[in-house]
Amino acid sequence: MEDLFTSRLKLRALTLKDAPFIYELVTDPDWLTYIGDKGVHNIDDAKSYIINGPQTMYQQYGFGLLVVETIEHKKPLGLCGLLQRDNLTMPDIGFAYLPAARGQGFATEAAQAVIDYAFKQLNVEHLAGITTPHNQASIKLLQKLGFVFVGSHQMSQDSAHSNLYQRTKTA
């Protein structure tokens, strides 16, 4: 998985050194509300999450969630990248940020870099965006990035319905 850069940000693959950051992010109340409990309750759980989630996806698909950090301070702000879900035919853009990093344009900037990479480097034709119906910040971001609502989608038999958005590659 190659690093991606914008004027302010570097997006890079997760390593086990990112476990404290992952622990902080996935235990944030907004993560738990909008994404769900990933079973990360300590640093060892965070390492397992990195290995069994993003690192496995890098190996299987050549993409996955990336750490978003500022070029200047190299401090992790959040995650942004592509996920391949079993019940979707196209990659899904995912993103989450620590509270201190929200509202500064980082999510838009990082997501646009991921979209450009997907369409230009990976030659993906369509991208999905999944969010809970009440996550207004994510809905607003997806719409700002050119995603269009296509309907309701259930990720698994025991999960609530999510909003499914899609963006198609343009010439």
UniProtKB/TrEMBL annotation:
<dbReference type="InterPro" id="IPR051531">
    <property type="entry name" value="N-acetyltransferase"/>
</dbReference>
<protein>
    <recommendedName>
        <fullName>N-acetyltransferase domain-containing protein</fullName>
    </recommendedName>
</protein>
<dbReference type="Pfam" id="PF13302">
    <property type="entry name" value="Acetyltransf_3"/>
</dbReference>
<feature type="domain" description="N-acetyltransferase">
    <location>
        <begin position="9"/>
        <end position="170"/>
    </location>
</feature>
<dbReference type="GO" id="GO:0016747">
    <property type="term" value="F:acyltransferase activity, transferring groups other than amino-acyl groups"/>
</dbReference>
<dbReference type="InterPro" id="IPR000182">
    <property type="entry name" value="GNAT_dom"/>
</dbReference>
<dbReference type="InterPro" id="IPR016181">
    <property type="entry name" value="Acyl_CoA_acyltransferase"/>
</dbReference>
